[in-house]
Amino acid sequence: MKAAIVGSTGYGGVELIRLIQNHPYLEPEVLISSSQPGEPLARAYPHLIHLSCSFEQLDMERLCTADLIFFATPPGVSGAWAPALVEQGKVVIDLSGDFRLDSPDTYQEWYKRPAAPAKWLEQAVYGLSEWFHDQIQTASLIANPGCYPTAALLALAPLLKEGIIPPSSIIIDAKSGVTGAGRGVKQAMLYCEVNENLRPYKLDGHQHIPEIERFASLIAQENITVSFVPHLVPMNRGILVTIYADNMNNYTRADVREIYRQTYEAAPFVRIHENGWPETKFVQGSNYCDIGYHVDERTGRIMVLAAIDNLMKGAAGQAVQNANIRMGWPEETGLGFSPLFP
Ligand SMILES: NC(=O)C1=CN([C@@H]2O[C@H](COP(=O)(O)OP(=O)(O)OC[C@H]3O[C@@H](n4cnc5c(N)ncnc54)[C@H](OP(=O)(O)O)[C@@H]3O)[C@@H](O)[C@H]2O)C=CC1
Ligand SMILES: CC(=O)N[C@@H](CCC(=O)OP(=O)(O)O)C(=O)O
């Protein structure tokens, strides 16, 4: 099948090229760049000099030569282009946040821009592969989750579904590498600003808060609110979330172990750490989400940790996993990379 990637000069886009180029059933046929049309891929990414493709202008007719279209673009781009592509019978997988929220007002409030039409927000299927597998199988428009929500929801969802933690006690402390902010030039992301520094940011309005709350509530079947504190850490890739919640009814470590075991026993990309806790190095370059937990009898809290590679399970890897689910291919197709360590 032919794939098109819009935003292929960005970090999410180049990770898609790497994955699709190694995928047995997908070809990276159309690589779109609005800033560098006509330029060879190797000019933007010399490590891909062995691939002799060039970037192309964003053009509807050209996009329609592909079967599957990935958007790895800033907010607003897929919202404008995806509906027409779906109407042409194409499958669209969107890595941006344009279709992750169901209310135009909520999108406007958190993204500070107008939303895509409500009809398309309602039609989009959330691409958290392990939890929305059945809906993804028939979806035309897949809203790939944000990087922080992927880690947070995979860690939280089993406990929420079982009603083990109360709806308002949840604190999510999250840390991301710098590729999470994209390849665009920003002063705050310069080496001297980021190196040897640990920076909390957007405590007062991160766009992933409504996304986490929407799907946590859906899974728990009650209204969930979370406190969310993201941090930027001086590393290229990786996200670690540490979640704190009250332990209702004193569930034991054995109870929690059984819940995670049962929930994820058939999930090829979720690994549970029974001894020790996940680290970002354990998942780097791979599509795994590693989860660990601690049932703290002293304080009556449960701590759950999840590590992902933000560009893989947090973006391009999960997008390819969703393409596999949608096309009926084995979920691991083209994603069988072991993590890079050290
Ligand atoms: N980085 C990460 O870890 C994650 C990112 N995401 C989301 O995925 C999307 C892509 O992220 P990322 O790759 O990091 O971002 P980058 O900034 O690295 O890349 C974005 C790409 O979009 C293209 N672009 C910019 N403006 C337009 C436009 N108006 N029309 C068409 N193309 C445009 C740019 O290429 P050009 O100017 O050449 O067209 C650029 O290459 C974002 O929405 C991001 O929030 C989601 C999960 C994780
Ligand atoms: C380190 C860093 O800056 N990370 C980005 C994550 C962006 C992302 O995943 O984005 P969308 O949900 O907007 O698509 C952030 O916190 O905004």
TrEMBL record:
Q: Which GO terms describe its cellular component?
A: cytoplasm
UniProt keyword list = Amino-acid biosynthesis, Arginine biosynthesis, Cytoplasm, NADP, Oxidoreductase
Extract the SUPFAM superfamilies matched here: Glyceraldehyde-3-phosphate dehydrogenase-like, C-terminal domain, NAD(P)-binding Rossmann-fold domains
Compartments in which it is found: Cytoplasm
Q: Where is the active site?
A: 147
* Pathway listed: Amino-acid biosynthesis; L-arginine biosynthesis; N(2)-acetyl-L-ornithine from L-glutamate: step 3/4
Catalysed reaction(s)? N-acetyl-L-glutamate 5-semialdehyde + phosphate + NADP(+) = N-acetyl-L-glutamyl 5-phosphate + NADPH + H(+)
**Classification via PANTHER family:** N-ACETYL-GAMMA-GLUTAMYL-PHOSPHATE REDUCTASE, CHLOROPLASTIC-RELATED (PTHR32338:SF10), N-ACETYL-GAMMA-GLUTAMYL-PHOSPHATE REDUCTASE, CHLOROPLASTIC-RELATED-RELATED (PTHR32338)
What is the protein name for this chain?
Answer: N-acetyl-gamma-glutamyl-phosphate reductase
Specify the species: Lihuaxuella thermophila
Organism lineage: Bacteria, Bacillati, Bacillota, Bacilli, Bacillales
